[in-house]
Amino acid sequence: MKNYYDMLSAMAERHPDKICLTVDSSRWTYKELQAACDRLAEKLPEVSSGSLLVLADTFAAQLTAFIALQKKGIIPILLHHGMKEEEISSIIRENHLQGIIRLKDDMLSFTPSGEAVCPHNEPDILGVLSSGSTGTPKVMYRTFDSWAGYFPKQNPIFGVSGDSRMFLHGSLSFTGNMNSLLSVLFEGGTVITSEHFRCRHWAKLMQEEHADILYLVPSKLHLLTESVKETLPEVRHIFTGSQLLSAQNIRDLKALCPNAELILYYGASELNYITYAVCDNPDRDPRNLGKPFPGIKITVSDGLVYVDTKYHVSGIEIPFSVKDTGSLNEKGELIFEGRRDAWINKGGVKISTQRIENLLRTIEGVAACAVLPYEDEVRGMDAAAFIVAEKNASESVIRTEVKRILKPVEVPGRLCFVAEIPLNDRGKVDKKSLFASKPL
């Protein structure tokens, strides 16, 4: 196999009538999904090679475009939803892409860029976008083996097999979702999802479709446990990453899914999975991200975490760091201290916003929170804490507790109570919306 169309074709031949994808009330067998990809491939523009952005309005459209383009020998790059046209143009221009395909209401349109095709030193078959937090998102490329080559190692840890029925939610432009979906199709299992952001509907769908694996980022797991009180006993495995889990998160998940093993992993778009921890004790250190995955080596130099792995995006030097900070304990487990850009220099004192967030989550009455750095005219940098209070919780009591559990220099310069922590289509904190809701 050289790409994910080949992988799907092999599974369609082996399990033609098995359901591979359920989206709400719609279902596709492996044979039907391959046929949908074939039909779309026939409609694609005559681009012989290169890379195309894909902006699709549904989960199924994202997936079929991703696979159909690979059949045609074109590298797909799924766009995040909600990006502005000038941002899209910048991505195309600065990454020398050949254009953009838009899929909306089953209609396809193509806008070529006129950019020349850039040669690749590796047999790349897909592209992913960097976060773009400090400028135009950069396209990072991957070979087939950089993901599929590791599925035999990661799948047993997450409980993924040919019998698996995994529920996940969100855009496939989030590499965690795409990798998880492809890992299930690699085994011949079933993926279940919804186009709706309604947790009770998710739970009903999981029950109806007998989901036994749950993959959601912690922010969505929190919303699920807040909204759903009926247990999900068929769920045997939960794995999650991108954010940390609080003690209350773990207790709530154990109550919702009493028969599930809960795994918190640490990974990066550039590097795949790095470490993992089985979270069986709610009172565990939330910063502990566990031991390395098989075949992965981590080291720490000057406080930065470096990863040695052959499963990574093309064109980076190994060992590689995404500028995360941390340390290794005596058991070789990673103690995470946050991204380097999540540390602030407040009047000459270095402070971790990750540490502040972890402590705020321990306060009784705090349902959710996010702590973000911002520029302060007097101190240079400071932290802004956005808190969702539980029903009937006292804001004044929470403010008092914040001052009690934090060092004076750590107390956020802004403490804002909000109705919710807004999320983007990848399930991560929407920082722009959060700051816009409470201007500093």
Itemize the secondary structure elements and their pairings.
Blueprint: H1 4-14, E1 19-23, E2 26-29, H2 30-43, E3 51-56, H3 59-71, E4 75-78, H4 85-95, E5 99-104, E6 107-112, E7 124-129, E8 139-143, H5 145-148, H6 151-158, E9 165-168, H7 175-187, E10 190-193, H8 199-209, E11 213-215, H9 218-227, E12 237-240, H10 247-256, E13 261-268, E14 272-278, E15 291-292, E16 297-301, E17 304-308, E18 324-328, E19 334-339, E20 343-346, E21 349-352, H11 353-360, E22 366-376, E23 380-389, H12 395-405, E24 414-417, H13 431-437
Parallel strand pairs: 1-10, 3-4, 3-5, 9-10, 9-11, 11-12, 12-13, 23-24
Antiparallel strand pairs: 1-2, 5-6, 7-8, 13-14, 14-15, 16-17, 18-19, 20-21, 22-23
Helix pairs in contact: 1-2, 1-3, 1-7, 2-3, 9-10
In short:
The chain is built from 13 helices and 24 strands.
Task: Give your account of this protein's structure.
There is one protein chain. The protein is an alpha/beta fold and 440 residues long. It contains 13 helices and 24 strands. A 9-stranded mixed beta sheet has the order 2-1-10-9-11-12-13-14-15, with helices on both faces. Strands 4-3-5-6 form a 4-stranded mixed beta sheet, covered by helices on one side. Helix 3 links the parallel strand 3 (51-56) and strand 4. The longest helix is centred in the first third of the chain and has 14 residues, at 30-43. The termini are far apart. The model has no long low-confidence stretch (mean pLDDT 91).
